[in-house]
Amino acid sequence: MSTEVKQYPVTEDAAARAHVDAERYARMYAASIDDPEAFWREQGQRVDWIKPYSRVKDTTFGPGEVSIKWFEDGTLNVSANCIDRHLATRGEQTAIIWEPDEPGEDALHITYRELHAATCRMANILADMGVAKGDRVVIYMPMIPEAAYAMLACARIGAIHSVVFAGFSPDALGARVSGCDAKVVITADSAPRGGRKTPLKVNTDKAFKHCKDSVKSLVVRRTGDDIPWDDARDVDYNEAVKTASDSFEPVEVGAEDPLFILYTSGSTGQPKGVVHTSGGYLVYAAMTHRFTFDYHDGDVYWCSADVGWVTGHSYIVYGPLANGATTLMFEGVPTYPDAGRFWEVCAKHSVTQFYTAPTAIRALMGQGDQWVEKHDLSSLRLLGTVGEPINPEAWNWYHRVVGGGRCPIVDTWWQTETGGHLITPLPGATTLKPGSATKPFFGVQPVVLEPQTGEEITTAEAEGVLCIKDSWPGQMRTVWGDHERFVKTYFSDYAGYYFSGDGCRRDADGDYWITGRVDDVLNVSGHRMGTAEVESALVAHEKVAEAAVVGYPHDIKGQGIYCYVTLMNGVEPSEELRQELRQFVRTEIGPIASPDLIQWAPGLPKTRSGKIMRRILRKIAEDDFGALGDTSTLADPSVVDDLIENRMNRK
Ligand code: WT7
């Protein structure tokens, strides 16, 4: 197998300019594993500390207690690290390039000095609304500079932000506002995206029905749309900003004080609030941004993610700004007004590093090379991908057509929980293989475990579940308000390790190939979703008795959402009902959770003890029912015949 894989050695150009070449990678990696304490003591200096740390690493993955602390006795302010410390040397340099949804609208170039003033004004407004250190603030915003100001303003105050992706429904927003007991929701009138608008303020008002009366909202005028208004609760940012002071003293926080909470889906129950703290997270985000993307002064770096996801946190805002970089923020979508938009933006702003998701690459690949070839992409030096495994065909297209055959591709494997890249090529050090995330980052010790026994597979070539042996500074610290869930989710199945939830293969060269989730988590267009969440949305509908949700292979999205639905007695299935259920799930969770296929299931395959046999449902959804395996333990084997007969994903 590995002999057939085409390899791309480090290019001369990448080697010549890179911060890290192969020799340095080997040396630094060995040092990071041999003596993590010494390694991170030095790397921690990437960040400016108010009070320096004396302790570096204090972590245990159990058994028993799980506790993760880095640089614990140090203090700092994250916004001062992302802004103030650059003012003397690069105050007039562009910090953020903002590209609006409509190509006809002017882009903005915000300097570090302007970013400082804007962040301070936002911090003053929030402080006037009663936000103080340790308070939670939810950010439900379009991709506009004010979203970054809002994050940094919270960090400046020492408040904890929780960004909720603007594509989430009012119900999902309300659950998150209540879940972290937020004092304020920062939102906008509407969010333009791909020529359409999401009514964020209207959604926020609806979400507030599920929240405490005391929650306030701060509303940014993005479109100027007419919006409902409640003087007792709503503060107009565009008014307040006129008189807000443009200085605000950064608040000193401990390294282990939370910086943000980000809700993400798991295999059971409702989304959990992943908690990241200040010191270790920032060190890790800055370091990975610098080395993985080989960022140098003068580069224009663009990550096309949304700040609603961790990628936007670490690689649009915190990592780049901590490094004094120029980071591009894009409000729109890859295909608006046409399939050339990404490349038009790259050419317009002379982007040097471009980081996006495989689903976008696949969608654009399908539109034809002419959309790329129209634009001058000679400024590009490096390409990146994240979010799901990239198929070699898409990798090759990205490399050849977008990168002109000269740009290394960094396929970065990581998770909301990990804060930053864990397995990734470094452009000056790593031989690339299309589809492989290749090698661990500094300080990261991946292990492949035999799924059943949990034994570590120590041969070079290995296939099993992907775990991490020891901590790294960017690791999540807990689940907000539920440390037990943290321990149970990540440290119980395989004692002593961090369990990623992914399967992987390690080849003879020690390169890692991520094979996808081994739990009941779907990855739909790079968006993570629990099958349990979609199921609970479906069964909340009055006509649904029972539902089981699985993923199936989808050409563009990676995975599609396949739902088996058993209706209440006497309810007739119909196409209208299918639409109704689809809409219902969108309302409960958001458009990203929209079911692709809904099959009416008179019964679900269950064991005699009543457990749904998902393995069978997955096979049927994959149109691979020849390999159903043993069905003899089913309470009623005949339901399977009906499901096969009426399967919806026929190739
Ligand atoms: C899951 C994490 C990390 C930011 C975006 C997603 C999958 C992520 C890769 C990659 C193969 C990948 C994994 C992981 N994933 N990157 N390069 N190759 N799979 O963050 O929403 O927390 O999802 O995304 O399955 O567990 P997330």
From TrEMBL:
Its cofactor is Mg(2+). Its EC number is 6.2.1.1. Acetylated. Deacetylation by the SIR2-homolog deacetylase activates the enzyme. It catalyses: acetate + ATP + CoA = acetyl-CoA + AMP + diphosphate. Residues 84-471 form the AMP-dependent synthetase/ligase domain. CDD domains: ACS. Keywords: Acetylation, ATP-binding, Ligase, Magnesium, Metal-binding, Nucleotide-binding. Mg(2+) binds at residues 539, 541, 544. GO terms for molecular function: acetate-CoA ligase activity; AMP binding; ATP binding; metal ion binding. It holds the Pfam family AMP-binding. The modification N6-acetyllysine is found at residue 611. It comes from Oceanicola granulosus (strain ATCC BAA-861 / DSM 15982 / KCTC 12143 / HTCC2516). The keyword ATP-binding applies. One of its GO terms (biological process) is acetyl-CoA biosynthetic process from acetate. Residues 25-82 form the Acetyl-coenzyme A synthetase N-terminal domain. Belongs to the ATP-dependent AMP-binding enzyme family. Catalyzes the conversion of acetate into acetyl-CoA (AcCoA), an essential intermediate at the junction of anabolic and catabolic pathways. AcsA undergoes a two-step reaction. In the first half reaction, AcsA combines acetate with ATP to form acetyl-adenylate (AcAMP) intermediate. In the second half reaction, it can then transfer the acetyl group from AcAMP to the sulfhydryl group of CoA, forming the product AcCoA. This is Acetyl-coenzyme A synthetase. Gene3D superfamilies: 3.30.300.30, N-terminal domain of ligase-like. Residues 533-611 form the AMP-binding enzyme C-terminal domain.
